[in-house]
Amino acid sequence: MDPTSPPGRSVAPLISVQNLSKSFPGVKALDRVQFDLRPGEVHALMGENGAGKSTLMKILAGVYRKDSGEVLLDGQPVEIESPAHAQSLAIGIIHQELHLMGHLTAAQNIFLGREPRKLGGLLLDDEQLNRDAQVLFDRMNLALAPTTVVGQLTVARQQMVEIAKALSHKSRVLIMDEPTAALNNAEIEELFRIIRQLRSEGVGIVYISHKMDEIQRIADRITVMRDGTYVATVPATTPMAEVIAMMVGRTLDQADKHIPDTSASEVLLDVRGLNRGRAIRDVSFTVRRGEILGFAGLMGAGRTEVARAVFGADPIDSGEVRVRGEPIRLRSPQDAVRAGIGYLSEDRKHFGLATGMDVESNITLPSLRRWLRWGVFLNQPAIRAIGQQMVAKLRIKTPSLTQTARLLSGGNQQKVVIAKWLVQDCEVLIFDEPTRGIDVGAKSEIYKLLNELAAQGRAIVVISSELPEVLLLSHRIVVMCEGCITGEVPGDAATQESLMALATRRD
Ligand SMILES: Nc1ncnc2c1ncn2[C@@H]1O[C@H](COP(=O)(O)OP(=O)(O)OP(=O)(O)O)[C@@H](O)[C@H]1O
Ligand SMILES: [Mg+2]
């Protein structure tokens, strides 16, 4: 096969999947799915949370074994038995959650278990190791020292190391499962540059993402899945509204934005003169009952830092936080929760989700004291009912309430964390990137929910890096840049341009 020939009908697929099925206990994750990948194409895989995208790719990467169906590699049937086997077949994957060893260097991670040796195999040859890694980084046009300890790298850079690792196995197939979920715009551009480079070298790339704009920019073809089944494969020039309709099986109605007049409502959250090193500089704002306050800004502007400080997760140098006019002690998140402040972290893997516990416990445990009868006995039926109610309300895709959270798809894990905070009944709720990794249909459900929460009289803060999201949701928008608030705009007067101008203002 000539790897330089352009993608087209005549090109034989690198990988072709036919009638593939896979079940987990209680879940038919894949039901007679088909898929093919050509050399030198970026093939986007789209579908709602839990549609089966990651499962399909994990089968190709040897993480799971298929139940039935066929996988052809260069036209020949293969049984992919293990991740090592997939690598030897030149299939590389970058998982939804990164898998690197934080204490090892970039080069050590790339060649883990196959380090070059010297003196007849007695000693590791670190110089050769670093040289080999450098060759890969050069090929990717990446300025990164092979000796950097991975734990010190940004998520984006770690992702680049993962790509280098996949390339070190001479991958002809590279699978990327939501690679940009935690990247900023500049980092996404860097990733796209590398993807285009690999594509021109004839690598076939599978690209999983919920971000429509990215898919339109980078993909050549799109395959849509729904509920574990194959829907269609279409050119990436297909109008996105059509693709979305295929994904969700219905057309989505855009929620009309209505900004209530809350000018006379009680101030629930009042933050005054907050300071923390250079990260937070003299930040003050208020949120009233019934209001949704948006926080816009570039990644690193200090929005998460402010949220964490208000939540008592990080110490502050100076400043005051009042809830309903009362100054609160802010030594720990427990203090904040007691005062009625909830914080949905942007990092669900480290804060938020207990991956080893089941769905029900994740939703109800943090508010367990609410389910005590006479202050002692747990009211099990009430706990079960609230769990069921949340699963239905947020459409969490899970076979049961007792399913281990780790086994849910990425987007459904995020929904579980949201459910947990809804149950806690906090009057002030801070949502940090609430729709990261969440599919379009579920996104609009979460928007509806935030509006409902505000209408019930809570004060909502939404931090989001997606400007359209901030614009759609917020009644009022605060913009941050380098630790400072650089402006405040009414929700109905703001535009992407005006927010960007404030987000990049230097002082
Ligand atoms: N190891 C597992 N054990 C049990 N069920 C699983 C396992 N892995 C996946 N599932 C289930 O299989 C279905 C498909 O999950 P998958 O992770 O493939 O979805 P996805 O399309 O990648 O979703 P997302 O967009 O949220 O990442 C889901 O219902 C999920 O809960
Ligand atoms: Mg997934």
TrEMBL record:
GO terms for molecular function: ATP binding. This is Sugar ABC transporter ATP-binding protein. It comes from the Bacteria. CDD domains: ABC_Carb_Monos_I (cd03216), ABC_Carb_Monos_II (cd03215). Residues 15-252, 257-507 form the ABC transporter domain. InterPro entries: AAA+_ATPase, ABC_carbohydrate_import_ATPase, ABC_transporter-like_ATP-bd, ABC_transporter-like_CS, P-loop_NTPase. The keyword Membrane applies. Signal peptide: none annotated. Keywords: ATP-binding, Cell membrane, Membrane, Nucleotide-binding, Repeat, Sugar transport, Translocase, Transport.
